[in-house]
Amino acid sequence: MIRRALLLPLALLASLTFTTVAHAASGTGQIGAFNESDGGGEYEARVTAQFTPDENQWPWTVSAYTVPADWDCMPNPSQTVFVSDSVTGPGGIVDVLYIDPEEHASANVCLYASYRNQQYLLAKTTFAAPAAPAPSRPRSQRVPTLSSGQAWGYVAAVLDRRFSSSWSHRAGGWIKCGRINRTRMRCRVAWGIGDSSYSGIVRVWRQHDSDGDISAFYSYRIRGLNEYCAATGGSNCTRLYVSR
Question: What are the structural domain ranges in the chain?
């Protein structure tokens, strides 16, 4: 039996409306309490954020900006104090932001998700630098800005010291640094040697040490993979290196 297609009059077709349901991007976030970072000089706060984009193929990042304490939040790239790595699809980040009280004595700190040229406000808090106690040793010198070239050199020295020949005799690799703030940078690293590959994050920064002198500091979290072990179905093929 042959079924005939249902034919609707043109006038009826014109009256029909088709609705596309759009799922808007959304997110939440939190900025924790500020505490003086190790060694003094800056203050740090824990940052958490969750974000759900409306289309999973587009990446998003989280940034924190400062504005004067009597202003409402607004994206302010000239006063960026935190930028996360990019994430694709729904997910979250947990990280730390740093503020120099000499630059931001009193400010609103605004946390935004950046996605497809739009900014989504996730959280807001106020930072007020506490009254400075009388220093045991005078700090006559302001911590200088850490340049990209200096950060690259610090990271290379850290990898050379920690991984020795695995880094110095590497077959390819890179160091890519992004600024956290004026005195801090976060650098992504990756390299390989033989059957092993390494990738992770190294943070470098300058601050006053316990003697009041300006020194360089670092932390890292790097994953090593024995690719032959992984390819042959072996166990314990990865090793995590974390600074102490």
Answer: 26-128, 148-242
Q: Would you call 132 helix, strand, or coil by DSSP?
A: coil
**Are 176 and 86 a contacting pair, CB within 8 Å?**
no
Using alpha carbons, select from 78, 87, 82, 72 the residue that is nearest to residue 34.
82
Q: Which residues contact 188 (CB under 8 A, 6 or more apart)?
A: 85, 175, 176, 177, 178, 199, 200, 201
DSSP state of 220: E
pLDDT digits (tens, 9 = 90+) for 202-213: 989 888 887 778
Task: Return the percentage of the chain with pLDDT > 90, whole number.
Answer: 30
At residue 205's C-alpha, the angle toward residues 145 and 74, to 5°, is 65
Taking only the tens place, the pLDDT of each residue in 35-90 is 887 655 678 889 999 999 988 888 898 988 888 888 899 887 778 888 887 888 89
DSSP sequence for 172-198 = SEEEEEEEEETTEEEEEEEEEETTEEE
- Rg of the chain on CA atoms, in Å: 25
Range with lowest mean pLDDT among 9-23, 82-96, 123-137: 9-23
State pTM to two decimals. Answer: 0.58
Please spell the DSSP secondary structure of 2-60, one letter per residue.
Answer: PPPPP---HHHHHH----PPP---EEEEEE---EEPTTSSSEEEEEEEEEE-SSTTSEE
DSSP character for 129?
A: P
| Architecture field, domain 26-128 | Sandwich (2.60)
